[in-house]
């Protein structure tokens, strides 16, 4: 299987050894000294993965001289995962945690770190007060540190963004950026829009890209597929205070996953009546039709999931979130963006393979598994298909639909069916229901 790229990821233990700093391992961290409740303050350093080696070369002698206890993420792979929120949103950006012994030590150390880190950047640390370019502290009522005016502003919903867009409802807040439902005032439209924010340095990767690059790529894809794939139309892109914003039409409806859960009511396929089964399959056939249209336009979606299909108010489906998509015809992005929805990602996607439509087929199989069982694929699907089979057949029966799921989930992507074949099989099954 051809890989889209190869990268060599470093461990940080050898750097501590180089500076003669003793440490022990604790979960995902390398720990020096004995951090504990006796420490006066905790300070967090948030830094992009590509910049961390250079930062450590300057920082470690300072920490050693001050005998400051600290913890450091073990390696670059874990750092990418940490900054992407894989270990929890509350840990994003906490690449290095310092434990000064006294308040005076903390104040002095903060000044020293700010002096040597002015050229670095890192993702925003949720729930913490920024006191330097990459330095954060927990957010109590009073801080003993000098805080520049640019870091003092309160985090609150802006009254207007990009001159024309009024955010009125926070849909989701995350380390990579917030998502708002807003009103589009451009051209006196006064209609709903979706405002997707990219925070600075969020989802940084080994090729110097971050959330801004993902939003720009999504813009390019939306402009290319407009009118051919049912998806919200691109409206605008702009930047404000180091944040990037992508504005799209707002899809009035509910996520497919939510509608499926409401219909199942805790039941699985075998407990449903015929009309309920038909409704689930109508939704799934709609998802298959849309996936086919995405592929006809030369793209792999690469993030198909129950939350990335919206059932509109007229019961039609649309697809959202082309952030991870890949153009087969243009072989773009040259390096595909990584990550995706856990449980829906094909094995080769995790292994950085050159993208193929068979990645989407795997995801469509996981989606059908969710529809039949009501169980999230990440918690239900096993790495070995033979372990998934008895669980799936126990909830959905040993027939056609279970077999379709298992074929789609085949670890060897060349053995997975084409979307057209998949749709024909599901449609035939649907027509036989009575």
Automatic annotation (TrEMBL):
- What Gene Ontology molecular-function terms does this entry list? ATP binding; protein serine/threonine kinase activity
The organism sits in which domain of life?
Bacteria
The question of whether Cytoplasm is a record keyword is answered with: no
Pfam (any one) = Pkinase
Which major enzyme category is it? Answer: transferase
Gene3D superfamilies of this UniProt entry?
A: Transferase(Phosphotransferase) domain 1
Per UniProt, residues of the Protein kinase domain are: 165-430
In the Enzyme Commission scheme, what number(s) does this protein have? 2.7.11.1
Entry keywords, A to Z: ATP-binding, Kinase, Nucleotide-binding, Serine/threonine-protein kinase, Transferase
What InterPro entries does the record point to?
Kinase-like_dom_sf, Prot_kinase_dom, RamC_N
Q: Which PANTHER family does the record associate with it?
A: CDC7 KINASE, ISOFORM A-RELATED, OVARIAN-SPECIFIC SERINE/THREONINE-PROTEIN KINASE LOK-RELATED
Protein name as it appears in the record: non-specific serine/threonine protein kinase
């Amino acid at each position: 299987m051809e890989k889209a790229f190869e990268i060599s990821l470093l461990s940080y233990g050898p750097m501590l050894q180089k500076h003669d700093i003793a440490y022990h391992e604790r979960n995902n961290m390398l720990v020096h000294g004995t951090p504990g409740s006796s420490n006066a303050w905790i300070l967090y350093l948030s830094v992009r993965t590509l910049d961390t080696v250079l930062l450590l070369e300057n920082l470690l002698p300072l920490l050693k001289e001050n005998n400051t206890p600290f913890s450091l993420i073990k390696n670059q792979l874990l750092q990418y995962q940490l900054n992407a929120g894989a270990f929890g949103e509350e840990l994003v950006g906490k690449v290095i945690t310092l434990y000064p012994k006294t308040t005076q030590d903390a104040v002095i150390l903060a000044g020293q770190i700010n002096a040597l880190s002015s050229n670095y950047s890192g993702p925003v640390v949720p729930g913490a007060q920024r006191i330097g370019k990459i330095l954060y502290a927990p957010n109590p009522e009073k801080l003993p540190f000098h805080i520049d005016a640019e870091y003092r502003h309160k985090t609150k919903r802006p009254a207007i963004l990009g001159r024309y867009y009024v955010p009125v409802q926070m849909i989701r807040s995350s380390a990579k950026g917030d998502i708002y439902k807003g009103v589009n005032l451009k051209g006196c439209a006064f209609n709903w829009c979706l405002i997707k924010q990219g925070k600075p340095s969020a989802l940084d990767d080994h090729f110097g890209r971050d959330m801004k690059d993902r939003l720009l790529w999504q813009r390019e894809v939306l402009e290319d597929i407009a009118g051919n794939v049912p998806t919200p139309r691109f409206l605008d892109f702009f930047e404000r205070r180091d944040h990037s914003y992508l504005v799209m039409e707002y899809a009035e409806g509910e996520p497919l996953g939510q509608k499926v859960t409401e219909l199942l009511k805790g039941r699985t396929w075998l407990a449903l009546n015929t009309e309920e089964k038909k409704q689930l399959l109508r939704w799934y056939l709609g998802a298959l039709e849309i996936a086919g249209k995405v592929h006809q336009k030369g793209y792999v979606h690469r993030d198909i999931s129950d939350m990335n299909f919206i059932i509109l108010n007229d019961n039609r489906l649309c697809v959202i979130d082309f952030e991870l998509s890949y153009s087969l015809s243009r072989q773009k992005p040259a390096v595909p963006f990584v990550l995706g929805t856990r449980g829906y990602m094909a094995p080769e996607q995790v292994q950085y393979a050159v993208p193929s439509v068979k990645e989407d087929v795997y995801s469509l199989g996981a989606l059908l598994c969710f529809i039949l069982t009501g169980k999230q694929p990440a918690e239900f699907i096993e790495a070995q298909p033979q372990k998934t089979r008895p669980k799936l057949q126990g909830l959905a029966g040993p027939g056609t639909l279970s077999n379709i799921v298992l074929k789609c989930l085949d670890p060897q992507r060349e053995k997975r069916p084409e979307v057209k074949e998949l749709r024909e099989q599901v449609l035939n099954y649907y027509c036989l229901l009575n």
